[in-house]
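Q: My labmate handed me this sequence with no annotations at all. I'd like to see what the chain might look like in three dimensions before we decide whether it's worth expressing. Could you predict it?
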Amino acid sequence: KQHTQSADDIRQCAQMADCFCAAVSLPGPRTPYYASHAGMLWHKLGQYRKTLEYAQLARDIGRAVLPKNHPVLADLSGNLGTAFGDLGRYDQELRFHLEALQIRLKTLPPDHPDLAHIYSSLGTAYGGQGDPQRELEYQQKALKIRLSCLPAGHPDLADSYDKVGSALCALGEY
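A: Here is what I predict for the chain of 174 residues:
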């Protein structure tokens, strides 16, 4: 069942986004999180340009205050990639998801579920660029990891199967 946002939901979300936006002006180690949360809330409201603005800010602040290969930087880069993808800027989406992948590959085992998420995001970016073969390659990587670590019936497995199927359809393989 699809959740529709009521006027109260939207108002609450906008108020929370405003609070996080105000907190971004306070320097400190939590600032990248505030900017990231503001971006996620703007995303929920369909304000993709504001999402991009805060995702960029979060990543920039994170790069200034966190170690080079900190896992949070992978999340911030991935969020930035998704923000670019929402605006149809797939080349930038791909760039930042690849950046997230490079950080995660240095800090996680090769079958970690977080890698599956990044591989799936990369597949989506390649699909957006019109490269269904690479889309399929990355969606299959995501599915393989998820099959190895998630229980049968997990919603992420359904998502992976759906994305592999979509890539196969784009290749004309029904």
